[in-house]
Amino acid sequence: MDEAQKHLPDAISRARTPGNIRVFHIIxxxxxxxxxxxxxxxxRGLETNEKVTCEVAVLSTDVHxxxxxxxxCRIHYLPxxxxxDLSIFSRLNTIIRDFRPHIVHSxxxxxxxxxxxxAKLAGARFVNGYVRAAAATLGFRDRDxxxxxxxxxxxxxxxxxxxxxxxxxxxxVKKGVCIHNGFDQHRLDDLPPxxxxxxxxxxxxxxxxxxxxxxxxxxxxxxxxxxxxxxxAVRDDVSFVAVGDGIHFRRFKAMYPAAPHxxxxxxxxRQDVESIVSTFTIGVLTSNIRLHGExxxxxxxxxxxxxKPVIATDCGGNNELVEEGQSGFLIAAGDADGLTDHIILxxxxxxxxxxxxxxxxxxxRKEFSLERMTQAHVALYESLTGSRRQ
Length: 390
What we know:
Blueprint: H1 10-13, E1 21-27, H2 34-46, E2 52-58, E3 74-77, H3 87-99, E4 103-107, H4 109-122, E5 125-131, H5 143-151, E6 157-160, H6 163-168, E7 176-178, H7 194-201, E8 207-212, H8 221-234, E9 238-243, H9 249-255, E10 264-268, H10 273-277, E11 282-285, H11 298-305, E12 310-313, H12 318-321, E13 328-331, H13 336-348, H14 350-367, H15 370-389
Parallel strand pairs: 1-2, 1-4, 2-3, 4-5, 5-6, 6-7, 8-9, 8-11, 9-10, 11-12, 12-13
Helix pairs in contact: 2-15, 3-4, 4-5, 8-13, 11-14
């Protein structure tokens, strides 16, 4: 029995509705990341939709999101034994033959390598979801780009979460579809009071500037902390908070030890991200554009949904999410001075920060809702299966 099924009633885990569109999702893991968050949000949105039935294959046992076990769909955990585990083809094929999907939907480039031939073998349509970012420069040495070019000819649709991503990977207008991420407002239900979270974190300053991102090569924490130093040199009413972990976490934490830098906090990986973000005055996301361009960043969406003005690197799909001067600001890559100036502007002008934050909240509710994303996927699935099902 799959691990996730132990948490579900048998009647739910075995549910099949032959008249529905059956969609089989393949994703590398359910660790803390934007792709994983978007899939789980979509699955939650589809739970109340009678048109679509889903099953999921996860090629890892790495599960960060606790809500995965509560989903009313079957999840198969198929950890890869080696980096290129050919047995995955056979194991996936067995599940697909049992589920008989109308659509196979991949969520990552390696998942597309597995999913494309199996979809064709099963007579299913293939939705290729390898486009998750929008790097400024791409080539065949980039494995996602290479795998994408390899699998795109076998795809019925290439779906991305940003228009910038489709353009970066050179996906044609005929084959590419953009469906922006959706935010589940229920994630904000029953959050503890921000004051209680502040006390738990040991933060007493009036303001908090925070960044939620992995400490990976894709993110630009150098700029974030350079700006923190500049702001803290002139203001004593603000703390800087970094939420996330990764390969560079220890290096940065060693650079800013707690004793001489009490107003810089390293929180590591957390399950209570929404509670922490609710304490922010300003949300920041700085990216390393030499290696990465954001798609639609879930970290920014979380800040905006909680009514926080945001400041982000002007790259990838960030300008599809953040309206310059309306819901936040976009800065040039590596511009620590520009980040500092915008932080101080918002700290000095609370009415501006409040207005931008409210605009951000309204934008998420109107343009980036879970319902909007769910319906867009349902429409896509219906368009792919409509003529066949008729």
